[in-house]
């Protein structure tokens, strides 16, 4: 496999006999030229010893004109040459593991602004020149670019040699405008703080806004006067106000429990069998089911009732009790009203109570509780 090739010049008077012996021994590869007493032939290096023996027998003189093949190349290699070649191969292998350049290709009209956005996103994803190829997943990168840049309709990422190619097709302007979100006010209030990440801000700190007002638009104009659309993203905090009214009546009497007893029972279908009889003597009682268990797949249950005897007592509420009930009633309504809103903090609460008397006793309460809140009011649509 590593045998070389020799081109020989043979001189002598018995050249015909020399050639016949080469052919007979299947040595001759090629006859280049033949003159009266000189021929030029090509042979394999492995047959050179045989050729010299035949030349001696035929009284011919041999001289080597050319040496070709891997055999002679390997013979000429020195240690330094081997090291140099090895280092070069190693450098090529190592360099082939890195990305040295990122190329953005647009299939359509050129858009320098979008190319710049793509490069910025790649740097945010930590995709930079001089990074290892195996750290780049093309499919994941494509999905991220499509999710973060609504201007893109199609993206293809591929690695070729030492370059990373990002090909894309831009979405039509009407589609981009419809896809990009805008931020509206979810509640009325006074703007306290704004953190703008992207989009065109239409308000400033200290402005009073109403519910449904557009705060951040998706149409942006660059410093060069170029209009484009981007997804609006901002955190807008405002001071908001909520007024919660409530009213309730004060009962004339209040239950005062004096004793209690437990009664076990068995229930079969709609029929209930009490295992213990309690005589109440027409007293005021509350019957409360405290436990119940199903015994089998059939409609059979066992359980326990609690019978609580009480007497009615004249009820005259104190101011502390009224305030506590007002607070509980209004706070429940406030939590229900704001459960889908982003209340960051309740800054202050003011409570107004009106007590209505009947026959000299407090029987009806009308109240109003005002909440001042710090709220994140931005909602994307």
From TrEMBL:
<protein>
    <submittedName>
        <fullName>Stage IV sporulation YqfD</fullName>
    </submittedName>
</protein>
<keyword id="KW-1133">Transmembrane helix</keyword>
<dbReference type="Pfam" id="PF06898">
    <property type="entry name" value="YqfD"/>
</dbReference>
<keyword id="KW-0812">Transmembrane</keyword>
<feature type="transmembrane region" description="Helical">
    <location>
        <begin position="79"/>
        <end position="100"/>
    </location>
</feature>
<keyword id="KW-0472">Membrane</keyword>
<dbReference type="InterPro" id="IPR010690">
    <property type="entry name" value="YqfD"/>
</dbReference>
């Amino acid at each position: 496999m590593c045998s070389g090739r020799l081109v020989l010049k043979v001189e002598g008077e018995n050249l015909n006999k020399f050639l016949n012996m080469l052919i007979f021994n299947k040595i001759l590869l090629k006859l280049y030229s033949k003159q009266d007493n000189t021929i030029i032939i090509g042979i394999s290096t492995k047959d050179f010893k045989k050729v010299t023996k035949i030349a001696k027998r035929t009284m011919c003189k041999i001289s080597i004109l050319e040496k070709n093949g891997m055999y002679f190349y390997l013979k000429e290699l020195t240690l330094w040459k081997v090291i140099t070649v090895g280092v070069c191969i190693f450098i090529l292998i190592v360099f082939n593991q890195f990305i040295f350049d990122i190329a953005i290709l647009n299939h359509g009209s050129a858009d320098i602004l979008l190319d710049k956005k793509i490069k910025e996103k790649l740097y945010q994803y930590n995709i930079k020149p001089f990074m290892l190829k195996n750290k780049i997943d093309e499919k994941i990168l494509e999905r991220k670019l499509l999710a973060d840049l609504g201007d893109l309709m199609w993206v293809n990422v591929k690695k070729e040699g030492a370059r990373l190619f990002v090909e894309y097709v831009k979405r039509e302007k009407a589609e981009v405008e419809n896809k990009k979100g805008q931020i509206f006010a979810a509640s009325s209030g006074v703007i306290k703080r704004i953190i703008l990440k992207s989009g065109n801000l239409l308000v400033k700190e200290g402005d009073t806004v109403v519910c449904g007002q557009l705060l951040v638009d998706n149409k942006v104009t660059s410093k060069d006067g170029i209009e484009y659309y981007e997804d609006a993203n901002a955190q807008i905090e405002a001071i908001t106000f909520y007024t919660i009214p409530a009213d309730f009546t004060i009962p004339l009497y209040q239950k005062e429990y004096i004793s209690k007893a437990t009664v076990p029972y068995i229930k079969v279908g709609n029929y209930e069998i009490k295992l213990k009889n309690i005589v109440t003597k027409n007293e005021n009682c509350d019957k409360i089911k405290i436990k119940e268990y199903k015994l089998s797949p059939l409609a059979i249950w066992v359980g326990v009732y609690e019978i609580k005897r009480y007497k009615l007592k004249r009820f005259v509420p104190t101011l502390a009790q009224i305030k506590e009930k007002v607070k509980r009633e209004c706070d429940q309504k406030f939590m229900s009203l704001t459960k889908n809103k982003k209340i960051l903090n309740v800054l202050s609460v003011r409570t107004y109570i009106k007590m209505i008397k009947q026959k000299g006793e407090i029987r009806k309460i009308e109240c109003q509780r005002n909440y001042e809140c710090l709220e994140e009011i931005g909602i994307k649509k």
